[in-house]
Amino acid sequence: MSDIIQLLPDAIANQIAAGEVVQRPASVVKELLENSIDAGSKKIKLVVKDAGKQLIQVIDDGIGMSETDARMCFERHATSKIRKSEDLFELKTMGFRGEAMASIAAVSQVELKTKKEDAELGVLLEVEASEVKKQTHTAYTGGTSISVKNLFYNVPARRNFLKSNPVEMRHIIDEFQRVALANPQVAFSLHQNVTDVYQLNAGKLSQRIVGLFGKNYQEQLVACEETTDQLKIYGYIGKPEYAKKTRGEQFFFVNNRYIKSGYLHHAVVNGFEGLLANDAHPFYVLCLEIDPKKIDVNVHPTKTEIKFDDERMVYGILAAAIRQALGAHNVAPALDFDSDVNFSFNAPRRSRVDEFSTKSSNYQKFKSKDSDSEWDKILSNFQELSDKISKEEDQKEVIDESQQSLTFGSSINEEVKAVSPNQEWGDSKTSIFQIHNKYIATQVKSGLMLVDQQAAHERILFEKFNQHLKNNDGSSQQFLFPEQLQLSASDYALVMDMEEELKALGFVITSFGKDTVVINGAPTELTDTSVKSVFEGLIDQFKHNKNVLSVSKNENIARSLAKRSAVKAGAKLNAEEMNALIDKLFACQNPNYAPSGNSTFIIFDLNKIGSFFN
């Protein structure tokens, strides 16, 4: 029997390797930018056309390559980063495997120009599908320029799996942001087609964050720094009130390498304990410096996962650093060690004192006085004002209770009619009220019905928005004064990708600059809410749903807009609004459940109510 096992040709082996290393245009961007960083560049320019499908070009002012090195860099497992196995545990560079350039050249057409500082001429190299087509000397200023053209031109199946241009561009921007954040000392620029997306000067990390995400991030940055014998942590975290419901603005860098770690993210959230909602994710850019011998970066092909020798130690130091940063900037509550615990008086309850301290312009901290009469005067004034506030609150509570007082009429003389469950409530519109401004309670034939007002409104809006998207018939309310909204580059690309769907819902938006949109009109369903906050919430919710749900684009948009524009728990409704809400709910195709799957209403029949008293 003849032998059947044979070595694969290099071209095929490189294509197979490219399946892991080069998943999409953003993968090429990551590898090329990291190579420029390893080359000691101080200025890096990224040019992208057709979301990287037509061209990805990276130009740097690094050390450049000799003619031999330029040819060798396209060979598999050819690298300048390591020489022996022990070097894997002393890595301080981004690349080390020697697979990236070979993989990229296997699925694209690559043009390389490079020149070392002491060389008279540079080198021009053209490679197609791992085959060198041209190699010659050329005039070049110095550094390296790599152009990757027609990605996946020889692998059409892979090219067909690429997403739309806005989606692919969003991934490219994500990779660009990660490399730029890890290296604030390097100047970066990003050019998409004919648009300048980013122009980032070299500077401090805080300046880089503001340059990438916008000036509004300047208000929420809290410096975080901790140094121990084993680990150094520095960077910035966002204030709790700016936390978002979607992940995506959380960045960990270990020895300047971007990593993903759910374990370390949990440490950060633990540091925010008590300051965040359950579904909120804070912004942070945290850089960890640790001895390379204590980590293993050779775990995943994309190098975004690493292993620590002592994860618990890193977890503990990181959580402590977050708590310390929040406390030092008066973000977290702290004990006042300067107060005299032996001094006490009959003060009102804490919540009223807090409200008093914010409302009263006369409120001041106590200062030491020489005279007892001065103390008595201070205490007397404070107590008088506290009692006044307490009295006003009590009166307000009485008024609120009187407004919500209900008189239940007897239905003994009413004719009982047999109706379907969805229509039971029709004869009880006179006895309808809110419970804690969250649930709507109404009498029905079989007993008592409780409606979750937020879940019910989400169901109503979801079906309405779905219909608008299907028929492209959303009505719009034009604004007298348009709203201008500045977005991050990735969010801007996302909005442009959803432009047609947003138009079908009733939004009228126009592009205004590289990362700004102007909202000229909004769906008529949003007339009573802040359109700007709803639009920001829509983007946030859309990204969140995309991470946790497998639904179509249209359904995701309808879910997201319904979630962010529905009436919230805590909103006070009058009887007419409550009746209208229930009318519309039972006109839905599926009134029983909200889009999230939660029940919109429950019915307590008379037998169940009676069982509570037996």
UniProtKB/TrEMBL annotation:
Signal peptide bounds: none
**Protein name per the record:** DNA mismatch repair protein MutL
Give the family this protein belongs to, as stated in its UniProt record. Belongs to the DNA mismatch repair MutL/HexB family.
Which SMART domains would you find in this protein's record?
A: DNA_mis_repair, MutL_C
Q: Which HAMAP family does the entry mention?
A: DNA_mis_repair (MF_00149)
> A single GO CC term, please?
mismatch repair complex
Is Iron one of the keywords UniProt gives this record? no
- This protein's encoding gene: mutL
* Matches recorded under Pfam families: DNA_mis_repair (PF01119), HATPase_c_3 (PF13589), MutL_C (PF08676)
User: What organism, scientifically named, is this protein from?
Assistant: Marivirga arenosa
Keywords attached to this Swiss-Prot or TrEMBL record, sorted alphabetically, are: DNA damage, DNA repair, Endonuclease, Hydrolase, Nuclease
Q: Give any single GO term for biological process.
A: mismatch repair
> Does the keyword field hold DNA damage?
yes
- InterPro entries named in the record: DNA_mismatch_repair_MutL, DNA_mismatch_S5_2-like, HATPase_C_sf, MutL/Mlh/PMS, MutL/Mlh/Pms-like, MutL_C, MutL_C_dimsub, MutL_C_regsub
What is the role of this chain? This protein is involved in the repair of mismatches in DNA. It is required for dam-dependent methyl-directed DNA mismatch repair. May act as a 'molecular matchmaker', a protein that promotes the formation of a stable complex between two or more DNA-binding proteins in an ATP-dependent manner without itself being part of a final effector complex.
Which residue numbers delimit the MutL C-terminal dimerisation domain?
Answer: 431-573
* All copies of domain DNA mismatch repair protein S5, residue ranges: 209-327
Gene Ontology molecular-function annotations: ATP binding; ATP hydrolysis activity; ATP-dependent DNA damage sensor activity; endonuclease activity; mismatched DNA binding
